[in-house]
Each structure stands twice: as structure tokens, then as C-alpha cells.
Write a structure and sequence with these properties.
The structure is a homotetramer. Chain A is of the alpha+beta class. The first copy, chain A, has one domain (5-149): Hotdog Thioesterase (Thiol Ester Dehydrase, Chain A), CATH 3.10.129. Helix content of chain A is 21%, strand content 38%. Chain A contains three helices and seven strands. Chain A has helices spanning 22-31, 34-39, 70-85, and strands at residues 12-13, 42-47, 50-56, 91-101, 110-120, 124-132, 138-149. In chain A, strands 1-2-3-5-6-7-4 form a seven-stranded mixed β-sheet. In chain A, β5 and β6 (124-132) form a beta hairpin. Chain A is globular. The interface between B and D is medium-sized, with 12 and 12 residues. β4 (91-101) of chain C pairs antiparallel with β4 (91-101) of chain D.
Chain lengths: 151, 151, 151, 151
């Protein structure tokens, strides 16, 4: 994830006016997320109530069993959830999340997380996130609930 | 987390025979967990069905709101859960986890996660993890369920 | 839910040989589930890895706020999850579930829960359940993980 | 659960002025919860941020495996959560809950759920609920998050 990710070909942002559009603004901010940069998570796509993130698994993402650490898979899903939930006019912060782990992948494989809005209320919203491997097989399923602040 | 963490003063391991004791063995392996090293998570204590981990929050752990990323807090809790659940004779892998976020902390603060076994069955086990700040105030609560393999 | 529900028009079972087909067998057993009978939950459809249940909300399903009790909505989702997860050759029991509540409905409304398999492993499996009102609007989202025994 | 449960010996309410005390008020309202009455759940104790509920398992609470239905165990935990979270001055409604199932019990056994507040924020609060059997062994662990409305 680089400073210009929001303008790159890989980031498919459904907006062209960065100054005023909340989707473009969150795409730029999420593309510069410090922890995503630490882990190596890239923001691939942002639309209203929707986001995709990617992570190519390296040795440094493994746990002591030699498989991708739950924290790395979770962070990938959480980053998609955070971006998707902040595409509106309110600031969204996570209240509760949960994740089911299904399968491990090898080093070198690129994981993709897709977050979709399932509920948008006045004060809270909910998102389903699916993490898949390169063949589209499920790796994990995540759900998150945010609280939405007026700015 | 360094290679000699299992022998350091900070790691309080309830065993002194590294070759045969599963607690000592998991302490050494978990102290060398690659993703924990990437994030900066230290293993502070391991006992049967129990583990503590620590993370000092840096700028690189923040999200785009400027608060600790959920993925960093989760990874801290998950690391305690992973260590605690692998102190027995079976290999434990995460099936399901969930986390509730309560409060954010500032850069420089050290978070602590304490994992305790709440259920040990033949094939699965469950752990509660509490993440607190330096004053002991709750930051997050996590619960995880593992599947346990015969080696 | 009556003894002959498995043969009724409302129960859409993808099988016609009750003696040997696990889907037909589970349809009959789930149609006679005592707690579903207590609550008033009907099994509407069972296919491999899939089930639908229905509940018409009555006064007796309300909580002290005057809205459908979480336990009633959960039981509806859980019943679909239980039926869907037992359509295979193994006996499935719940390890972990979670539910997000989105909206309340009025007395007289019929809720529908649809459970779909998202993962089928050797020892565990996972299901997403969506609870909707009569117009198809989301009421709750549920996810469950089962352990699967050899009989 | 009967209309006079709030005044019975079994209901240990930390208040003696029912007209103005929110704990006494919620004890009375929760003791008359229609769904709890349907299922047979009794409110045993209510204090600020704390509640206990009980359920004696009958044949009508079983699932098609012949063990207590997840929906019955969940409803017991959820009822304790609902009472505990409404002991303050705000109306609390469930956003998210999750439950881990550990063990089944036999018909005739009385289950007890104890809900304790783990976080009280301005708009949300969190509760841990432990369900145990008559010997105090864990049957399930539940966690719930509420949204709190100003009345």
C-alpha cells in the first residue's frame, strides 16, 4: 500500500471528486492506513458499503504452526470492513466482530477479502466479509458491527 | 520478541525442561511466532491453559482514524489464545473467535492480553481473553474455540 | 409442527425415500423437534446443506420491551442451522454461534430463516443463516459452526 | 415465571422502592417477560449490571438429538443479559451476541445463567454470561452487546 494507491489502477474507487466524495476520501485514507502498511494489506476496491482488500502471504505472516496467523487473516478482513463501513457520511468504529476459520493457504498465495453491507441503521451498521484464496475457495468468514458517529 | 524470549526474565514459563514439557516447548515456539514478531507482540507468560501477551502501541499499529487498529488488538488477543490453547499434548487450531471493542488507547501505551481456558473437551477447547490497558481498564474481550488434533 | 410435517406440502424435502436418505430422515426428525414445537417454529424446507424455518410472531414470543425476544429469533435461526447441518451422514452438534439483530417486527408477522452451508470440513462445518421479515428485509444474521461425529 | 416473581423469595432484587428504582422496575418487567414464560425461564436475581436466570430442563426443551436445544440454552443466557443490561436509566436492546456450547445436560437438571457487565459506555454496554449446571460445571458461555437509548 503506497501513498498513491487511491489513484492507482488497482484501486477501483467509485468516485472522481476526491475533495468532497466520502468514498474517494475514505479510499485515500484507508490506502494510507498505518497498520495495513505494517502488515502488507492493500485496498483493492471501495464503493458505497463495499470494499475489497488483498494480502499476499509471506513467511512473516505465519504463526508457530507454519500457517497464516489468525491475526493476519483477521486484519485483512477487518481492513475491508473498516473501509466499507466508512464510505458514508458518518465515522464508523467497530463494536463487535467475529470470524470463522476454514482453511490455511501457503506462502505466496494472495488472499482477498470482500466486505458487503448487510444492514445500515441510524446508529449502527453490519458487514459480512468473505476471505477467499486465489481459486475463490473460502478461507474465512467474518462479520462486523460498527457504531456510527456524527462528525 | 526475540529468539531467547523463552529464557528471558519476562517470560514466566511454568517448566524448566524444554525438551519434554509441552508448556516449555510452546513457550519457545510461540516466542518465535513470525507474525507476532512482525507486529511486535511479546509472549509474557505461559502456563497450562493460560497465556499472557503484550503489545506497546506504536504509530504503525494505528488505523486511519488514528486509534489502534482492530487487527492489532485482535492479533494480541489471538496470540495469547494460540499459546494458551497449545499448552497441552494436542495441536490446537482456531475454529471460531469473536471480539468486543470497548476503548481506544494512545500511542506509547502497553496493552496486555490474558487468555484463560474455560472449557477443555476431547476435540475442542475454549478460551476467554481480556485485553486491558496499563491501568487494568478493559480495552477488548475476546473468545476463541479451537479444534485439537492428535499429533 | 406435526408428526406428518415431513410429508406435508409445506415441507419441501429433496428426497422421496425416507428410510435411507439422510435428508428425508433429518426432515422427519427436525419436524418433530420438541423445542421447535414449544416455540412454534416450523421446518419449511430441507436440502443437502440447506434448510428453511418459519415462525409467526405471537404475543408469547415478545420480550419485556414488547418486541420479539432475541431467544425466539435465535431459536428460529438455530433450528434452520441444526437441520441444515444434519443433512449429511454425520451427526452435527453446535460448537459456536453468533447473531446480529437488525430490526424488530410486529406480532402477526411471519419470520423466515434460511441456512446455507459455507464450509464442509472433515470434522466441522459452518452455516450462514439469514432471518427476514415478510417483505424480505433483514431481521437478523446468524452464523454457526458444528462439530461432526461419526455415528 | 409468575406475576409476583419480583416479590418472591427467589428474586433477589437490590432495591425496595419499586416505583422509582430502575433495578426494581426491570426486575418486575423481566419477571413478566412473555417469552421467558413460554420457555419456563425464571428471573432469580437482579442487581445493577447483574442478573441471574434459571431453567429446569424438560422434554419440551430438547432438540431432535435428545439434548437441550441451543435455542433454549441461548434464551436462558439472553434473558439474564436482557435483565442485567436494563438495570440502568437507559433502555438497552441487543445488537450482537455469541455463544459457545460446552456440554449437554439431562432432563430434570436446572441450568443457571449469570450475566455480568464488562463494559458500560455512553451508547453501548457489554455483558458476559456463564451458563452452568447444578454442580457449577460450564454448559455455555455467552457474550452480548447492547445499544442504549435515552428514554
Amino acid at each position: 500500500m503506497t501513498d498513491d494507491a487511491a489513484d492507482s489502477d488497482e484501486t477501483d474507487v467509485a468516485a472522481d471528486d476526491e475533495d468532497t466524495n466520502p468514498v474517494a476520501e475514505i479510499a485515500e485514507r484507508a490506502s494510507n492506513d498505518p497498520f495495513c502498511e505494517t502488515v502488507g494489506i492493500d485496498l483493492a476496491s471501495v464503493h458505497p458499503g463495499y470494499a475489497e482488500t488483498m494480502l499476499t502471504v509471506e513467511e512473516r505472516h505465519l504463526n508457530f504452526h507454519g500457517t497464516p496467523h489468525g491475526g493476519a487473516v483477521y486484519a485483512l478482513a477487518d481492513a475491508a470492513f473498516a473501509a466499507a463501513s466508512n464510505t458514508g457520511s458518518k465515522t464508523a468504529v467497530a463494536l463487535e466482530t467475529n470470524i470463522s476459520y476454514f482453511a490455511a493457504v501457503d506462502v505466496g498465495e494472495t488472499l482477498r477479502a470482500v466486505a458487503e453491507e448487510t444492514h445500515l441503521g441510524g446508529r449502527t451498521a453490519a458487514y459480512d466479509v468473505r476471505v477467499t484464496d486465489e481459486t475463490g475457495d473460502p478461507v474465512a468468514t467474518f462479520r462486523g458491527r460498527v457504531y456510527r458517529f456524527d462528525d
